[in-house]
Amino acid sequence: MFAAAARAALTNAYRNGARVRAAAPIPKKFVFLFFCFSIDTPVAHRERTSIFLRRRFASRFSHPDAFVVSRRPDAFVFSSFRLSVVVTPPSLAALRAADKHTLVLVRHGESMWNLENKFTGWVDVPLSPKGHEEVIEAGRLIKDAGLLPDVAFTSLQKRAIRTLWHVLEETDRMWIPVTKAWQLNERHYGALQGLDKQETVDRYGKDQVLIWRRSYDVPPPVVDRSSEHHPGNDPREGKWTEWMGGGGGERGYGEDARPLTCARATTATATYAGFDFPDEWTESLKTTLERVAPYFEENIAPVLRSGKTVIIAAHGNSLRALVKGLDGIGEDVIAELNIPTGTPLVYELDDDMRPIPQDGSFAPLNGRYLGDQDAIRARIEGVKNQTK
């Protein structure tokens, strides 16, 4: 948490009835040094933060080295060389509320190959009619929850892109910046892509197929460059540049999480260019996580920390990989986790991108699903039963 979050937290405390007591009138500029810790913040973290604040505001204070933060069981104490202030919040939740960052995850609606029970992976199949209905309803649920995305991310696959379009249309947010990234693609199923799931069970056995589908680090059989399913044969392998100017086009975010301005160009992250795919290719959930997690940390987390509400429309396995990292889910547990199609999953994250627990979440997740909870459980079971 940094200075902006501190100011927001203090303002929120005032609005929610916090009592403030000072030994002397509070100089207006002193408010900018307030830093609100949760009751369980480690001492070392408080000390590091105090050092940061002293350095950050050294030019504004006569005695910056005297700035100290401490706490009592029921209050926070902020002290400078000449001033001591005690803030007693009505609840810790009131202080934490200003510091949370909202992330909305949506797995694409049912695709035609979900309907036909085929392994899809990176094959670019469309939504089924039911899938369109699912994600239109997802958009309505997001709107009804009062969630207004500021920035959107999705994969290169049309079922996720179309899902995002439906959600943004239902929430009247079609105008927000959208980034398409292959790192958010579904897990590549190698030689299983295009095969009927039940026929694959009949051929290889249920146990082997479940290992390929649900194990953390055992990938399916590979494809080589002679296969149409090798990513090196994808037309998106070429490199392209998107110009942001006069005619419009999609607006994006630069490395510093600030919007790209007109007449500025960016090499789109949307293609596979620059990635050296090996001659033999397949993915496990582990290798999917190895592309999803760095992309999230480098491109999405900075946008969340800047105060934007972010929505990601992606896929069952890329989202499983993401929540594994967010929630710290073990390898054995993630193997049994299923994320249903077309169902918004809402996370509240702190500044370290750690989930804030929410009432009504389905363990081991700390995010909460929007919608009819019994129907959501039925959808989860439906995903689980695809190879039975």
From TrEMBL:
<feature type="site" description="Transition state stabilizer">
    <location>
        <position position="315"/>
    </location>
</feature>
<feature type="binding site">
    <location>
        <begin position="213"/>
        <end position="214"/>
    </location>
    <ligand>
        <name>substrate</name>
    </ligand>
</feature>
<dbReference type="InterPro" id="IPR005952">
    <property type="entry name" value="Phosphogly_mut1"/>
</dbReference>
<feature type="binding site">
    <location>
        <position position="197"/>
    </location>
    <ligand>
        <name>substrate</name>
    </ligand>
</feature>
<feature type="binding site">
    <location>
        <position position="159"/>
    </location>
    <ligand>
        <name>substrate</name>
    </ligand>
</feature>
<feature type="binding site">
    <location>
        <begin position="107"/>
        <end position="114"/>
    </location>
    <ligand>
        <name>substrate</name>
    </ligand>
</feature>
<dbReference type="InterPro" id="IPR013078">
    <property type="entry name" value="His_Pase_superF_clade-1"/>
</dbReference>
<dbReference type="GO" id="GO:0004619">
    <property type="term" value="F:phosphoglycerate mutase activity"/>
</dbReference>
<feature type="binding site">
    <location>
        <begin position="186"/>
        <end position="189"/>
    </location>
    <ligand>
        <name>substrate</name>
    </ligand>
</feature>
<dbReference type="Pfam" id="PF00300">
    <property type="entry name" value="His_Phos_1"/>
</dbReference>
<feature type="binding site">
    <location>
        <begin position="120"/>
        <end position="121"/>
    </location>
    <ligand>
        <name>substrate</name>
    </ligand>
</feature>
<comment type="similarity">
    <text>Belongs to the phosphoglycerate mutase family. BPG-dependent PGAM subfamily.</text>
</comment>
<dbReference type="GO" id="GO:0006096">
    <property type="term" value="P:glycolytic process"/>
</dbReference>
<keyword id="KW-0413">Isomerase</keyword>
<feature type="active site" description="Proton donor/acceptor">
    <location>
        <position position="186"/>
    </location>
</feature>
<feature type="binding site">
    <location>
        <begin position="316"/>
        <end position="317"/>
    </location>
    <ligand>
        <name>substrate</name>
    </ligand>
</feature>
<feature type="region of interest" description="Disordered">
    <location>
        <begin position="222"/>
        <end position="243"/>
    </location>
</feature>
<dbReference type="InterPro" id="IPR029033">
    <property type="entry name" value="His_PPase_superfam"/>
</dbReference>
<keyword id="KW-0324">Glycolysis</keyword>
<dbReference type="InterPro" id="IPR001345">
    <property type="entry name" value="PG/BPGM_mutase_AS"/>
</dbReference>
<feature type="compositionally biased region" description="Basic and acidic residues">
    <location>
        <begin position="225"/>
        <end position="240"/>
    </location>
</feature>
<protein>
    <recommendedName>
        <fullName>Phosphoglycerate mutase</fullName>
        <ecNumber>5.4.2.11</ecNumber>
    </recommendedName>
</protein>
<feature type="active site" description="Tele-phosphohistidine intermediate">
    <location>
        <position position="108"/>
    </location>
</feature>
